[in-house]
């Protein structure tokens, strides 16, 4: 069966009969009582009748120029999430209309309009929701243009606010109006989790002549994109009696059970572990050839084909000085192209609505109740990770839609650095289509799981985001064997969180390596950035545990990266940074035996009996034991604070894997004896746990300042030499003390990842030498200006500069790229160490089109985000090539 996705057949043959009922839906403002005739085609629906803007007409002698507006009032704010509410979508904003002698209206601006007409295309929902399509005719003000404050809303269309636009544009009350309703009943799940929803790829069919001869005075017939043998026609409109409105809603039966770009491939993988179901749903060369047979108004191969399917004449490389395409550019994908994309995705395309939009009028979804909920939970990870485009560090988004109650119009909400669209990924095919579309259209591509990046890498203005959070499969492999490893392993999908992995490992009696924040995705930027852990001193970095990746590369192909398949890509993905070489769909990691843990928590502080000198002597004795503690495989997480002049060292906790309480006491007793000699009081709370997850769950939590616009962090890795060389140790400790005495927080980790598994990968050379990671931050004023943010950034570099001077890159120092300051000096060597040169070469090999970009990622120095003066680099602007 051939699927056609060319047009909708839509008829609205209205009579000039005056009606006594309102011409706009109940409750809609502005209400209109006089009818605008809106006609698509004739009384017989023929092919392509809605490909063009409808014919407008009215009775009476009316002069002047007019603006035509058409809006869908019932678009889901978030597809699949009914609680997210409804927003408006602008289908047309066309000025320049004037009346002809026969009562019709014409305009010469239909194609050059601020928002050219796009066809009705409601998505499938369960239960089905009728959409109200409203048409309005406004008197056109002299020298009309779209106000600057409304440009983005008009360009984006979704989230349009009719009343807000009318006020901003200075429009008077519309003189004529009309509306009809359409409902899509095709919420049918198909293989691979794809839902064939007609979100915008409607087609024509000659079967619409079934409604010819209808007795309705005003008729709307809707025919969707399914072949005539498998659809039903519905009509809506008025009867010949003007006092009664009759609605017969559309019913749709699916014709294409699986969108034509999808192929289900065998489960076998060269990694040695079978593909997940979601990974078996792919786009292949054969399926690309198949969609060429689809009857459509867009070139599918040019838009969605693999790199090897595109002729050299159709390739669009970005030259120096050029930018990625941006909303409003002449070559930004057309509505029809976005609709075609969503059709191939199976309805997974989500236009971005900022998470705090319910706090404002701009997107037409203001709700005090929802706004209060966003404000209350903005500091929690769960809120942001469940949203397609939200990120946990809004300072790098540009702070264009913060959760403040802006309903009175004194504040505005815009997309800023948020991507324009997100793909809610359920299978590999959707990732491949997204990568191909972004590459072929020269569009910025963003990858997001939870948005937990300290540098805002999961955002990007004008971009298309691949949202992998829904890929949550975990598979335990009791015995895995390849050339480098034999033992238990776990395969985890891209959306799986750290806590999920720990729980699954505990269930199977093993231990997995991950971070201390439970809501971080394991297989994405965490592992690809190296990934330190509370078990790092014993088992190394998280990246060292990876045995294979499944990944979609920049050419759109799905490949395995392992020691035997694409080994250079395998090398780069293990520590070379996220959002750089491809979209990882799963990682296969080694796991370790069940690991008991002893932990201890306590605090020492200045007091009436503990002077500052004594306190620092106690802290110095702690630092002097770092190498002994980490050589024993332990990990110490600590804070040094200066609160109102009171200094504190908080051990939260001392984490000793494979230690009994007796063994732990023997390990720490030399330090504890020093504290007693100094007469520093402390009371250790020491606990033994039978397994790693129980110890983790009792001691760690998500205590990061998520959602903050006032905190800017930075960090430093200190090598072993700084703790064994007396001169370097003195410089290191002096730098730490000066920062704390100046009022800056120090968050510390005593850990030595080394390389116990003897891995050759891209983990920074600084981590291989490290014995400690230190993090600090600066606090910005509320609602800081760009100048204040810049001052804060310079202050942070001054604070971390003391550490940098004590541990320069040339002596083994560096910074952890996942928790760093975005304006880190010489970030290439600081974040990536000795590996940067090879990583840059592999970036050119695996992504010569620069499909993947993230701030401070390998190769990002060739680009800039033109965000104006924001104080620090943000993602709120065009992405342009500079070298």
Quickly describe the structure:
The chain has 883 residues and is α+β, with helices and mostly antiparallel strands.
Q: Any idea what the shape is?
A: globular
How many individual domains? 4
Task: Label the CATH architecture of the largest domain.
Answer: 3-Layer(aba) Sandwich
What CATH calls the topology of the largest domain is Vanillyl-alcohol Oxidase, Chain A, domain 3
On the 0 to 100 scale, the average pLDDT is: 85
Strand content: 15-25%
Structural class: alpha+beta
Count of individual beta strands? 34
Largest sheet features: 8 strands, antiparallel
What oligomeric assembly is this protein in?
A: single chain
Q: Helical region count?
A: 23
Overall helicity: 10-25%
What is the CATH top level name of the largest domain? Answer: Alpha Beta
What is the end-to-end distance?
49 Å
Radius of gyration: 30 Å
List the uncertain runs: 1-21, 42-49, 188-257
Organism: Pseudovirgaria hyperparasitica
Domain FAD-binding PCMH-type: 415-594
Protein name: FAD-binding PCMH-type domain-containing protein
Family: Belongs to the oxygen-dependent FAD-linked oxidoreductase family.
């Amino acid at each position: 069966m051939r699927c056609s996705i060319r047009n909708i057949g839509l008829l609205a043959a209205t009579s000039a009969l005056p009606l006594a009922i309102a011409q706009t839906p109940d409750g809609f403002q502005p209400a209109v009582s006089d009818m605008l005739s809106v006609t698509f085609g004739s009384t017989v629906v023929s092919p392509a009748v809605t490909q063009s803007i409808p014919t407008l007409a009215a009775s009476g002698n009316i002069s002047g120029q007019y603006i035509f507006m058409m809006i869908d009032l019932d678009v889901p704010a978030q597809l699949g999430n009914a609680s997210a509410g409804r927003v408006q979508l602008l289908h047309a904003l066309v000025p320049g209309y004037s009346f002809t002698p026969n009562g019709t209206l014409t305009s010469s601006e239909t194609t050059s309009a601020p928002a050219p007409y796009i066809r009705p295309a409601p998505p499938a929902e369960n239960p089905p929701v009728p959409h109200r399509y409203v048409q309005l005719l406004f008197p056109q003000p002299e020298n009309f243009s779209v106000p600057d404050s409304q440009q983005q809303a008009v360009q984006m269309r979704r989230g349009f606010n009719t009343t807000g636009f009318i006020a901003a544009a200075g429009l008077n009350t519309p003189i004529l109006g009309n509306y009809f309703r359409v409902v899509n009943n095709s919420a049918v799940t198909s293989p691979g989790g794809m839902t064939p929803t007609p979100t915008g790829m409607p087609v024509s069919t000659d079967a619409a002549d079934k409604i010819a001869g209808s007795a309705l005075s005003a008729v709307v017939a809707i025919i969707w994109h399914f072949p005539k043998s498998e659809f039903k026609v519905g009509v809506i409109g008025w009867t010949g009696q003007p006092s009664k409105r009759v609605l017969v809603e559309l019913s749709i039966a699916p014709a294409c059970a699986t969108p034509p770009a999808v192929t289900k491939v065998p489960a076998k993988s060269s990694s040695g572990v079978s593909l997940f179901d979601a990974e078996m749903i792919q786009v292949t060369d054969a399926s690309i050839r198949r969609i060429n047979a689809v009857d459509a108004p867009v070139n599918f191969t040019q838009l969605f084909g693999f790199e090897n399917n595109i002729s050299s004449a159709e390739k669009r490389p970005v030259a120096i000085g050029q930018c990625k395409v941006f909303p409003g550019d002449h070559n930004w994908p057309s509505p029809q192209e976005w609709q075609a994309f969503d059709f191939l995705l199976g309805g997974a395309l989500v236009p971005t609505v900022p998470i705090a939009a319910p706090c404002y009028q701009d997107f037409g979804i203001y709700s005090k109740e929802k706004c209060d909920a966003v404000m209350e939970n903005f500091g929690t990870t769960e809120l942001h990770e469940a949203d397609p485009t939200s990120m946990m560090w809004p300072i790098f988004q540009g702070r264009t839609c913060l959760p403040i109650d802006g309903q009175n119009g004194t504040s505005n909400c815009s997309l800023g650095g948020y991507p324009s669209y997100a793909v809610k990924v359920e299978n590999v095919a959707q990732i491949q289509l997204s990568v191909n579309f972004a590459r072929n259209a020269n569009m910025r591509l963003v990858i997001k799981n939870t948005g937990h990046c300290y540098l805002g890498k999961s955002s990007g203005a004008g971009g298309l985001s691949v949202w992998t959070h829904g890929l949550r499969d975990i598979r335990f492999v009791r015995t895995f064997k390849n050339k480098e490893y034999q033992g238990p392993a776990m395969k985890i999908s891209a959306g799986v969180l750290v806590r999920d992995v720990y729980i699954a490992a505990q269930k199977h009696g093993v231990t997995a390596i991950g971070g201390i924040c439970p809501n971080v995705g394991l297989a994405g930027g965490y592992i690809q950035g190296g990934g330190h852990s509370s078990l790092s001193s014993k088992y190394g970095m998280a990246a060292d545990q990876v045995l294979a990746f499944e990944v979609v590369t920049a050419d759109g192909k799905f490949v395995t990266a392992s020691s035997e398949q694409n080994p250079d890509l395998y090398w780069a993905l293990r520590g070379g940074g996220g959002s750089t070489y491809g979209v990882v769909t799963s990682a296969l990691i080694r796991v370790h035996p069940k690991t008991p843990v002893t932990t201890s928590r306590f605090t020492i502080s200045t007091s009436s009996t503990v002077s500052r000198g004594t306190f620092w002597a106690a802290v110095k004795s702690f630092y002097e034991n770092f190498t002994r503690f980490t050589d024993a495989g332990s990990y110490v997480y600590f804070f040094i604070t200066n609160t109102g002049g009171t200094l504190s060292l908080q051990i939260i906790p001392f984490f000793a894997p494979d230690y009994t309480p007796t063994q732990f006491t023997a390990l720490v007793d030399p330090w504890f004896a020093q504290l007693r000699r100094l007469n520093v009081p402390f009371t250790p709370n020491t606990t033994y746990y039978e397994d790693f997850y129980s110890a983790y769950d009792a001691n760690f939590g998500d205590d990061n300042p998520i959602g903050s616009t006032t905190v800017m962090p930075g960090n430093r890795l200190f090598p072993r030499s700084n703790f064994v060389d007396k001169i370097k140790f003195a410089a290191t400790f002096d730098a730490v003390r000066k920062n704390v005495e100046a009022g800056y927080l120090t968050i510390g980790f005593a850990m030595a990842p080394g390389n116990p598994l003897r891995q050759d990968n891209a983990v920074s050379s600084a981590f291989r030498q490290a014995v400690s990671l230190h993090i600090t931050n600066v606090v910005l004023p509320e609602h800081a200006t760009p100048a204040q943010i810049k001052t804060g950034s310079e202050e942070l570099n001054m604070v971390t500069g003391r550490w940098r001077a004590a541990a320069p890159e040339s002596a083994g120092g560096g910074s952890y790229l996942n928790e760093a300051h975005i304006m880190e000096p010489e970030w290439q060597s600081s974040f990536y160490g000795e590996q940067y040169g090879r990583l840059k070469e592999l970036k050119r090999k695996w992504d010569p089109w620069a499909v993947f970009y993230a701030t401070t990622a390998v190769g990002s120095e060739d680009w800039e985000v033109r965000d104006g003066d924001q104080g620090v680099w943000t993602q709120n602007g065009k992405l342009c090539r500079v070298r």
